[in-house]
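Review box. Two proteins, two foldings.
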Amino acid sequence: MFGCGLSFFFTGLVEASLIPYLGIDIGKLSLDEKAEILFVDQFIATAIVLGVVYGITSTFKPFPEDIFCYRPKEPFNLQNGWILWAGIGLLGAVGAIAAIGAVQALLNGESPQRETDALVRLLPLIGSSNVSTACLLGITGVLAPVLEETVFRGFLMVSLTKWFPTPVAVISSAAVFALAHLTPGEFPQLFVLGVALGLSYAQTRNLLTPITIHAFWNSGVILLLSFLQLQGYDIRELLQAP
């Protein structure tokens, strides 16, 4: 249902490394302050990881045209418009994941297992205030997609295409993407999402395409849960229901 495992892993490392030295008592902070710290953590983690990735690849300059490409021009071009193909990719991912969920429910006789490790950390913040919601949207809708798509599609997938056909690179990077979230019960859904992200990037050779899909996917989950929370639903119970 939600895919920010890699991002939250690096954020946790930053938090564990810096918070003790700053003398901040997490237990005494308000929810808004916790959300703001989480946003800063994610921003630092994103900057560090991207800096490492760019540093590793800088030895191979000049870069090929299809690596680390963020091209905002011609968003609705039929061949490689990033907004157009982001919309197609998002619809395809939603349909495919819904179909997988239905098949799993049919075969297992129940709803597929849900693993919400990343969401558990966010549950107290979801719907708590406008500040918390804005911070969560910044984390899940901007920073996490930029980080994960640059790593998995912009770096890993492009690197794999140097040795393997594009379909193999798409599938391989999608599998690594799904495994990196450390939620085995959600591997099929995350794998399909990764394939949709990889195919959209292969079509446009523009990282803005998978970033947009990823951003809408993550942000949609946060906004939906915030709405349900405001309507009085117990979102923890909903997420943990079988």
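Next protein.
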Amino acid sequence: MELENNTQFSEFLLLGLSDEPEVQPIIFGVFFSMYLITVLGNLLIILATVFDPHLHTPMYFFLSNLSMSDICFTSTTVPKMLQNIHLQNPAISYASCLTQMYFFILFAELDIFLLSIMAYDRFVAICHPLHYAAIMHPRLCGLLLLFSWILSILDSMIRALLVLRLSFCAPARIPHFFCEINQVLQLACSNNVLNMVEMYFATVLMGIIPLSGIAFSYSRIVSSILRMASTKGRYKAFSTCGSHLSVVSLFYGTGLVVYLSSAATQNDRASAIASVMYTVVTPMLNPFIYSLRNKDIKAALRSLLSSAALKQ
């Protein structure tokens, strides 16, 4: 194979989910529909939390930011995939691939941090209700969000810069529908040990530690709920955590299944299909999970939609 350095390397080829021409229109229709549902559903959550004064609380502040992050997360991959199918051209330029990789990592990690913060918020609300207002004050919420952005930006930038130093073998075919960093690193012809070390370090820092924090928060929450004497109080406490716990389970569960199954089978195309769950399906389902299991969100959405109908 011919070795190309980064100044000469021009593009990657995204092989997508299927190479059968008759399947492409179906994939386009399904992903276009899911993308629209994702954007509209999360946008409704954002509007509801902004315009309803009852939702101006830390929990819904972080929820609206999670919805914004989910829109951006999905927008880094699906539009380019739809464009490639529509134009019947699987190419993505080197610069576009690097940019897509950067923003995908950024918003994936931002999702992880926001889910961790929301677990901490529920822990304080249920385990320390009398001190909730003093602990989760607006300044702390702003600092937590800023800290999440800074860490996500720094790690995604480091990963992108480390990829920038690599050389790639031509032709560079990625058996995925977006520039997934593991797949890109496998195409490198130069030494990528530093990239792999950083990736494992980031997995611990950005994945395992936040997940451990979520697990600790919910272990304390469950313990606190079980000690409640009132059955009604237990139900209310479980209901306030149910939506968030469902989203955490869906996001982490599908992500772990994808990476564990891909490591076991080494089937890149199967891994690409499975990754649709946490990259596209989970952001689409989040608004439904929160709206169906949360009375405040449902009331805010009804008020928002009725106000919009009256203005027309």
